[in-house]
């Protein structure tokens, strides 16, 4: 009886698939062509911008003085000098911003995922983070100007620029931390709780290390973004053609501020410095992106 049932259940011949109709092939080809067309339309401006920046700025950055000297003592029409002072200002302002933004952003992200739940405070925090994500950089700069300079009476400085960049960087880190923590399997948390490990230690020892590679990638990308902002340095800091080691007082140059200043210089020297500073900023941001990729792969959880 069982043999007869097995024979009935067995297919008489392997299934045959009908050939794809010409209409479906046409639609598939049309969709593929549209996707490639959209990709080409999106990539053409990027390639054009990179080609223009490299063509006009690459010969400038090949000079060793470009990386080792400042523009102190040079007239606007004189050739020579470098952007050492602007590179220093860009990196210092970005790193000070990161020192403030990273702890705040990560703590907020951990609270929203691990402790907040559906509480009113968590909903209000999420709403404020969404608002900060869409705030233009000029609005953040004007807010810091009215608070730090007008209300508290401090002068324009690089530290004020870093505070404005914090407002732009924190929501990105919060969102990155939140999303990375959400993809950590709940089984890891439950296994830790089953062993009697407290929640805070589970977060520190298990959850955060598991999500650290993605969080670090988001931090590096956010830092690369804020270092290219122009509005905060225009409003909150004055340009100086020399290096200034005082973060809290006096003017300090940065690459975006240098480009804005040299744009008003009609001479060939200003034109060269403008494009040289542009490709220098592109190289620095590219370096940060590469470091983020390398750190993400190095810190990623091992599967074997």
TrEMBL record:
It is found in: Cell membrane. One of its GO terms (molecular function) is phosphate transmembrane transporter activity. It holds the Pfam family BPD_transp_1. The chain crosses the membrane at residues 34-54, 86-113, 125-148, 154-174, 206-227, 274-300. Keywords: Cell membrane, Membrane, Phosphate transport, Transmembrane, Transmembrane helix, Transport. Part of the binding-protein-dependent transport system for phosphate; probably responsible for the translocation of the substrate across the membrane. Belongs to the binding-protein-dependent transport system permease family. CysTW subfamily. This is Phosphate transport system permease protein PstA. It comes from Actinosynnema pretiosum. The lineage of its organism: Bacteria, Bacillati, Actinomycetota, Actinomycetes, Pseudonocardiales. The gene is pstA.
């Amino acid at each position: 009886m069982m043999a007869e049932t097995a024979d009935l259940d067995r297919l008489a011949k392997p299934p045959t698939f009908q050939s794809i109709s010409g209409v479906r092939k046409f639609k598939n080809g049309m969709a593929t062509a549209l996707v490639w067309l959209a990709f080409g339309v999106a990539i053409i401006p990027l390639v054009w911008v990179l080609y223009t920046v490299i063509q006009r700025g690459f010969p400038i950055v090949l000079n060793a003085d470009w990386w080792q000297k400042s523009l102190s003592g040079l007239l606007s029409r004189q050739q020579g000098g470098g952007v050492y002072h602007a590179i220093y200002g860009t990196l210092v302002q970005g790193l000070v911003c990161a020192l403030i933004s990273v702890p705040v952003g990560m703590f907020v992200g951990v609270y929203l995922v691990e402790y907040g739940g559906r509480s009113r405070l968590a909903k209000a925090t999420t709403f404020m983070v969404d608002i900060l994500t869409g705030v233009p950089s000029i609005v953040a700069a004007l807010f810091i100007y009215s608070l730090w300079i007008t209300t508290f009476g401090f002068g324009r400085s690089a530290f004020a620029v870093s505070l404005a960049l914090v407002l732009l960087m924190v929501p990105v880190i919060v969102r990155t931390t939140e999303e990375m923590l959400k993809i950590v399997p709940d089984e890891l948390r439950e296994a830790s709780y089953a062993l009697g490990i407290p929640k805070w230690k589970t977060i520190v020892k298990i959850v955060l290390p598991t999500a650290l590679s993605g969080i670090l990638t988001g931090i590096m990308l956010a830092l690369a973004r804020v270092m290219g902002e122009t509005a905060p340095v225009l409003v909150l800091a004055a340009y100086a053609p020399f290096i200034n080691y005082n973060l809290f007082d006096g003017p300090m140059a940065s690459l975006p501020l240098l480009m804005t200043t040299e744009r008003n210089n009609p001479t060939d020297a200003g034109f060269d410095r403008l494009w040289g500073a542009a490709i220098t900023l592109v190289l620095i941001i590219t370096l940060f992106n590469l470091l983020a990729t390398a750190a993400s792969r190095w810190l990623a959880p091992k599967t074997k």
